[in-house]
Design brief:
By secondary structure, the chain is an alpha/beta fold. The chain contains ten helices and eight strands. Bound molecules: phosphoenolpyruvate. Phosphoenolpyruvate (PEP) binds next to β8.
């Protein structure tokens, strides 16, 4: 089974409009559609429309960083999945560890958000990952398995969702798990997902946490790693493009 690599950038709460448009323009201009990878950027909600306008007609897709679990209604400050779709989005990140921590999001919340994304026609990128204390206690695989079992949306299919493994302690720290640890976690994740979906050969599993041009070739070379979710390095066109090139 050939799975197309997905290189996804999470801009988090960074960049004003002119900066986001300039970054998107640099990606659109330099990312070749005929390579081995798909490229996605997830700007802050305020920039989805202008970034989508810049990326229109290019090989780079746009997505959201979060969505509400409800399709519409009295939820001040929140963004519905259909609103992201309406602006040209095709993916949405749900359950990022920063949202799980900052907004107390449980697996049940993440699952409901992923279901809202599916209903709106978006591909949810469901994030999971252990804390450093959980890894030190030897519980990393159990924690990630439990998050997958609790967070995957009803109605998920192998090609309709993406799962991103992001160890909390590796995000923005410059630290990464060993290559063997990434390999064994991804193999475990595929097994767990297969038991829920009836198969996972076509399911894309991303690794996230301090991915840079210098470590991308090794990480993306792993059999069960089908792309990367990139934070800091996605804010520099040169670095993000180099990571995409590392996909082969
Ligand atoms: C992230 O927050 O999704 C992430 C992977 O961040 P970084 O690449 O900066 O570690």
């Amino acid at each position: 089974m050939t799975r197309r690599v997905l290189i996804a950038g999470n801009w988090k709460m960074n960049l004003l409009r002119a900066e986001g448009e300039a970054l998107a323009a640099a990606l659109a201009e330099n990312f070749a559609a005929d390579g081995a990878a798909d490229m996605l950027v997830c700007p802050p909600a305020t920039l989805i429309a202008p970034v989508a306008a810049v990326l229109h007609g290019s090989a780079v897709s746009v997505g959201g960083q979060d969505c509400h679990m409800k399709p519409s209604g009295a939820h001040t400050g929140d963004v519905a999945a259909a609103m992201i779709k309406d602006l040209g989005g095709s993916y949405v990140i749900v359950g990022h560890s920063e949202r799980r921590a900052d907004h107390d999001e449980s697996d049940a919340t993440v699952k409901a958000k992923a279901e809202a994304a599916l209903s709106a026609g978006l591909v949810p990128i469901v994030c999971v990952g252990e804390t450093e204390a959980e890894r030190d206690a030897g519980k990393a695989e159990a924690v990630v398995e439990s998050q997958i079992r609790g967070s995957l949306p009803d109605g998920a299919t192998e090609t309709g969702i993406v799962i991103a493994y992001e160890p909390v302690w590796a995000i923005g720290t410059g630290r990464t798990p060993t290559i063997d640890d990434i390999a064994s976690m991804h193999a475990h994740m595929r097994k767990v997902a297969a038991s829920m979906l009836g198969g996972a050969d076509a399911l894309r599993l991303l690794y996230g946490g301090s991915v840079k041009p210098g470590n991308a070739v090794e990480i993306l070379g792993l059999a069960d790693v089908d792309g990367a979710l990139v934070g800091g390095a996605s804010l520099k066109a040169e670095d993000f493009l180099a990571i995409a090139t590392a996909a082969g």
